[in-house]
Amino acid sequence: MNKLKFEQFAIGSFHYPRYPLCYFLDSVQRLEVKNIELWGVAPHLYVDDLTGADVKAIKREIDARGLRLICYCPEQNTYPFNISSTNKALRERSIAFMERSIVLGAQLGAPTFLLCPGTGFLNEDPGEAFKLLCDAAQRLLPTAHREGVTIVAETQTWHDCNILHTAADQRRLLDEVNDPAFKAMLDVSQMTIYGDTIADNLQILGDDIRHMHLTSSYSDSLDLTLQGDALRQKYPDGRPLSTHIGFRAGNNPIIDYLRQMGEGGYSHYISLEICARECFGDPEFYAREGLEMMKQAL
């Protein structure tokens, strides 16, 4: 039986923004993890604030600790970025920002770049926004090829996106773009919200899943027997959940998710992702708590 390895685990910097970047790097060392995912936000790693000397200095800090940057994830779900917008100025600025961000990630050694899909207006045909997403991805790929980077597309919740929610949506996107440097990633919160399962993702996407965010979610009425079309009929905008919270606060079966991924032969990285602001004050405590749970799947 296949199993995951500890060497596949990574710690994301998503819940460390109240501390300096080097604090995060030192924290990961204390947790005895070698892999990191960096969130591209100020004050840590916002591409347009960094000089070439800044980037080299950050790379030295990562290397000096023996760490490996496995994915770069610039913030892109909030104003002012949307690669699928019908507003041309907004869309062009967003695509240019992603191009610069791909280069930054590559300069820091990241083989993977996380791309969020953007969104269309809710009163317009989502098919048009989906076409713009495909076009944006194809425009970003020359930069990804030049830099030796794989782009992984992430699903989003209804609050951020109306065009990429499920593994089936990702499959359609990958088939449309049709490029070996453009793949999918799995976030188990979005998976749970829209009624997908680990088995669905492995069946629909297979080895095109090249990255994973392990996230904790909570609902006081979480019924995981409600899946697929039945769930989406009951909750057209997705199952109500509190997501990306501290791992001990959730009740989604994250250990079981990991075991299923291992048994399915998943061989790429898995980042611990926490975004809840209540975890910002003591981020290492919550990272350690999550990591200890992840180890139970090995």
UniProtKB/TrEMBL annotation:
Record lineage: Bacteria, Bacillati, Bacillota, Clostridia, Eubacteriales
Protein origin, superkingdom: Bacteria
InterPro entries: IolE/XylAMocC-like, Xyl_isomerase-like_sf, Xyl_isomerase-like_TIM-brl
Species annotation: Harryflintia acetispora
Pfam entry (one): AP_endonuc_2
Protein name stated in the entry: Protein FrlC
Domain Xylose isomerase-like TIM barrel: 28-296
